[in-house]
Amino acid sequence: MNDSDLELSVRRAVAETAAIHVSQVQKSQVLRDHLGLDSIDLMELIFLLERQFQIKLKRSDFIEVLGKNPGQATVSEVTELVRGKLG
Amino acid sequence: MRKRVVVSTSLRNAGVEPHLLDVDELPRKYPIMETSEYLQLDGYHFAAPTSLSVGSGLVLSEGTEAETTELTQETVEPKQLKIMAKPDRLLTQAALAAVKQAGLTDSDLKTDTGIYVTTGYQTGFGEFALPAARSFTRGSDTQDSELETNYWADFAKAVTESVNPRFLFASIDSPLFHVSKALGIQGPSVIMSPSAAQWFQVLRAAWRDLKDGKVRFALLCATAEMRSTLSRLQNARMNPSELRTPVDTATCMVLRKGTAPGRIARISLRRTRHPHSNFGELGSVPELNADAGPVTPSLAILLSLKNSGAKEIHLTRIDHDGALAVQVSRR
Amino acid sequence: MRQRVAITGLGIVSAIGNCVNEFADSLFAPKAGIHPITLFNTKGFPVKSAAEIRNFGPFTYPDRKVAYAARAITEAIAQSFGENGVPREKVTVLSLGLKHNFVSFPEMVSANFITIGPDECAQQISKAAGIQASPWIYTAACTASTVAIGTAARAVADGEIDVAIAGGTSSCVSPEWLLTYALMGALNTDANCAAETACRPFDRNRTGMILGEGAGFLILERESSARARNAPVLARICGFGSSLDAYHVSDPCPDGAGALSAMNAALKDARINPEDLSAINAHATGTLKNDSAEAAAIRRLLDGVSHETPVFATKPFTGHLLAASGAVETIAVVSCLTQQKLHPTLNLVDVASDCKLNHVLKNRHLPLRYILKNSFGFGGQNACMVLEKGDSLDE
Q: Which residues of chain A make contact with C183, given a CB cutoff of 8 A?
């Protein structure tokens, strides 16, 4: 999967979770503060990303790799996390 | 001559043959401990099935097909809509419409309103988890001890990978949350399940709060997805002779305390206290069938109000702790 | 409430005792009931600890909560009415809080699919306990049995009914429910955490709930009626209040506004003020969000009045019994009122900065008159009850 497809797939998953159109999801937006994702949304996002990319993703991955809780990550940081999991 | 619709219910456990009991006979059989409390019906809405069988062959029908209603993003926040199962959607739609008809303000709703709701065998999560369950093909009768050791680990993996966690929150009591959130209601609440008996009990709970001044308005609600896989299986086991045409439906009635008629109707409640020891003297009463489960009593009232032209609708429930006679008099 | 409602009988099945005396002894020993799970093999399973019932004996019913309820109801009725049971001339209800039983996955794919709905459960409980009473079945999540007790108390006070057998029962220590709550993010799933210290309400290092199972039932009647027949008045229910957050399907309102509203409603119903409270038994699940919100609500309740009112929590002993938690913890409150001492909140080592209250860390003897019992549940449901000391042991 090339970079732009990966980024679009992540943005689509975020959009579905936030119940908004993918065009409203920007790379720099913080999941909680800008996109309003709450605890349930973040659980769902992790589930969608795992299924979409066939990876294992845990809350602790956000803390270990990004140094922050899932809600504090930006869309581009989530993309980097997924890219790292895909190897 | 005034048209009346008379419906009576009783405990299924009575095990007696049904015959029609005229509700006016009730006072002569039992001492009345309490005369009428009056409620005003100011608004109502229901998701209508095509038809509903009530009592011994009496059928009330709604002309239009209305299996489900679709809430829109204009009426409910998208993220709330996303986690709603069918009973949640049906009831929220009914509540929004009933409240609008009754003319309640945001301020009325926030501080002066309570929600009194009955739900059916809802288990939204169970429905969504069915595909996961079916894909988990290793049965519990395995004899292999090595397999047994990993059985629940494999089960956890199968469910975790298959079920979107947002569906975990569609539960037997989630309809209460959705109505409260959609309307901003922060008052008291009572939620009971899963059958027609509980509807009469939440009606009493609403009446109790109204008469004690805990609330000024009561949303008397009921919702059930009788056609869901799990509901069908449960009813097939418990009520095999009764479930003829299960329906998915919900009702909401907006009630106030008062002796004058409400915008739609006046409801009077007559209650007797009666210990179970005399239950056998009850005689026979017909049973509302389980087509709409806990929604059946309110649906019978509202379909009658809307369609039958009846001036009065009588509904009676006889239980181990006495009888409750509900009379709805059209304005 | 218009009339004082007496509690004349108690019955319990819990991880720390299968009768009230054993339960109370464990509260003050203190001896907790959270251990590594033995009901099934947890290898690879995300949850390792729970508060299981032990030494209960063989189960006649496939759904364990039926047996728990029957045992607890039998104990409660025996204490209140003796071996003859509730007199048949009393108008009696069975008011209970229940969780919709989860359908076991293996059973779902089997042709012999069995599940048990709330009404069937109530029927089986009535039959097993040998009682005939209208079942009032509440499904208000974790507040269900508190609502069952509080609303039954109001019906008793108003003269609608004579006797209420009120409480709740739960058997959610099963792989399906444990997994459900783990997936919801509610449980402590730290595999490195010792079972005994896994439930730590208000602690800075708390990470979630531990589920428990069991049942608790109370016999309620008008105090005048209890006195007339020389029944024991173990405690009284004087007030009940409920509210909704209208905030989030699982998270509580962070500033505790909804919880505060229910607490105030209960105090108003009891016709007392916050400064009249001797103590507060918190819901205190051990989750980050509940405990913070509840602590905020309690501080607001006591603000300008008395921040010294002690707060204690029962779940580190019993686990979280979900629908039955209110009933079991109410029995803990009655035990405290009867013995005029508070049991501690176990495992509270480092109080979180947003959970500062007058926490009870070891048994505390003090005059107790009114205790507030809190219950909060998913969907923003809040239910609170005020209990009053009954007759002392010496009377």
A: 43
